[in-house]
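Q: Convert this sequence to structure tokens.
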Amino acid sequence: MAFLMTVILLMQSVTVKSTSDRDHNILKFGHTENDYVMFAHDMSMFTTGFTVCSWVRKLRNDGVPTWFSYAVIDQPLEIQISDMGDRTRIFGDSTNLASLYTVTPGTWFHNCLSWDSATSTRDVYIDGVRVDSKATPAGRTLRQGGTIVLGNEQDSGPGAGMDNVNIFDGELYKLNIFTRKLDDIEIREMSVDMCSEVEMKYGNERGLKWEDVLQKTKYGNVVENDGYFGCMLLNTVRDMKMENEASLKELNNTILQLTSELNGTIVEGKNAVLKLNNTMQKAIVQLKNMDKELSSKTQGEILSLKERSQETTERKY
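A:
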């Protein structure tokens, strides 16, 4: 009942949303090759290093669902990321990672692709775990002047070549591109809670921000769904769980303390019983000794009385 009341109050609280609340919206993509988001972006800040990260919800079981692609004139596959790992491309080089991890349809997972020219290395992360690392050509940098498409690939060059095979047909949330190659710890932290605001601490290092992505032109059937209420509800449930866990922990500590005190009392009681038993044993021994002593003394007095009586009798006669 308490949980139901909480949900009702939350629903009432989200009737009016601010712009910052909209930043929690989710992009849902349709079922056709015409359903995508396309825009040009200044990629110069990513020339020597970047990290593309997003929460991804896989909904399609066939084809090669592509949620991110960046194409330039002389390389339509400069970057491509699919939701099942079989098309992970950078600088045109393709790697099939499908055998390294499994994504359950209908569930959210966190996906990142990072690279920098200093190490000439491309890394792929699933839910904060680095699942693959691969060398890239030395001296290669990210080419400029291209187009970003979310929801399909661009086989024929910038803004062209979308096809049925690469229809995404899923959902995206918090897609950000960072201006450097994030490390394992940073990506792991980002993958823990999809409703956190951890990305915000990177400031200008978020070269492409999710809140800006939501403003881009949407083609076909691409809609924004409210993720704000879901995150509020999730956070509320999490807080309630934490409070319950704290209460259970406190109760458990109380039980442990009482058990300890009871055990101490039992031990004290046992010690008292042992002490009493020892005292009684000593008393019994003392009583036995006293009985022996008394018996011996009594017998001696009886003999003495007999002897005196006999002497008295003898004197009479």
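The first strand starts at residue 26 and ends at 29.
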